[in-house]
Design goal:
279 residues, alpha+beta, Immunoglobulin-like, 9 strands, 20% strand, binds heme C
């Protein structure tokens, strides 16, 4: 009987929500980006500096009252020598943000939400049940104790093609990094002949899909365990990315359609996937 209670207590303990302080900040300490996460140092999350703002949010598609941190102010003092923030989310998404874009495309880390400026601010953010007018998402985006509030209509690294912050959940980790060194590490087996495909991957896919266990882990890895190029032809890829919405209900609509993908872009991505998988 005693052991039963011990077990129960630990389950209750594990089930309690992770606190906002679980969010961690790291800075790259080597010239090359390290996916093993060994060459980096931990930075203390600031205890002060919370602000109250009324901001438009691309996920809720309306203005909300939030309390939290302006990412540029929190990270600024630690960013010397680095040019990019990599925001890693609970759902496996990894979104790079160039530090010099934060002045025009700010990123706010909300730790509380309220109905008015006066509060009370609660670390509770309604989940998002649908992306599209008519299609209900059976697997909604849910938040734990924080949420990124993004207000801009563009996201510079994707050259306005795509805003990854529409699909992110709660932030788990901020990495202060050298962006080009990570890009290089993600292109590890890609030859110059497939550079175009790699560039399209960096603009459209890297936020959710990793390559050979490097990078994001929301969608399937493009190389490991089964190379994606063996499962999909360039035509399949085009259909999958461009018209994803059509089979949204069956598939959970986890991957949003990018309706402006062209057939030649799909071909370039496929060729790059093949090169990346060549061992
Ligand atoms: C916002 C996140 C996100 C982005 C961006 C994204 N994907 Fe996905 N993708 C997913 C998720 C999640 C899945 C698995 C569930 C599904 O199919 O919806 C997936 C599934 C896939 C599949 C199907 C895999 C299978 O097992 O059948 C392919 C192919 C694919 N993605 C290719 C791409 C390509 C190519 C890009 C870039 C042009 C891209 N994705 C961009 C999240 C994303």
């Amino acid at each position: 009987m005693k052991s039963f209670f011990v077990g129960l207590t630990s389950v209750v303990f594990l089930a309690s929500p992770t606190s906002a302080s679980a969010l961690e900040i790291f800075k790259q300490t080597s010239a090359s980006y390290d996916f093993q996460k060994l060459k980096r140092k931990k930075i203390k999350f600031p205890k002060k500096g919370k602000e109250v703002r009324q901001l438009f949010d691309v996920q809720y598609n309306k203005k909300i009252f939030v309390q939290g941190f302006d990412i540029a102010k929190v990270i600024g003092p630690h960013a010397q020598g680095m040019d990019t923030l990599l925001l890693n989310f609970a759902n496996g998404m990894s979104v790079p943000v160039p530090i010099n874009s934060l002045s025009t495309e700010p990123v706010f880390l909300a730790t509380g939400l309220a109905k008015s400026k006066k509060g009370p601010f609660k670390a509770s953010f309604p989940s998002i049940a649908k992306f599209d007018e008519m299609i209900r998402d059976p697997r909604p985006i849910t938040f734990s104790t924080n949420k990124i509030v993004y207000s801009s209509k563009t996201y510079i690294p994707s050259q306005s093609l795509f805003i990854p912050f529409k699909y992110t959940d709660s932030l788990q980790e901020i990495e202060i990094i050298n962006g080009p060194s990570r890009e290089k590490a993600l292109a590890f087996r890609a030859k110059p002949s497939v550079e175009k495909g790699h560039a399209i991957y960096m603009k459209r896919c890297q936020y959710c899909h990793g390559v050979d266990d490097r990078g994001a882990k929301f969608g399937r890895d493009f190389v490991d365990p089964i190379p994606m190029y063996t499962m999909k032809t360039p035509e399949n890829l085009l259909t999958h990315v461009k018209y994803k919405k059509i089979d949204g209900i069956e598939r959970g609509l986890l991957m949003p359609a990018q309706t402006n993908l062209t057939a030649s872009e799909a071909k370039y991505i496929w060729e790059w996937m093949k090169a990346a998988a060549a061992k």
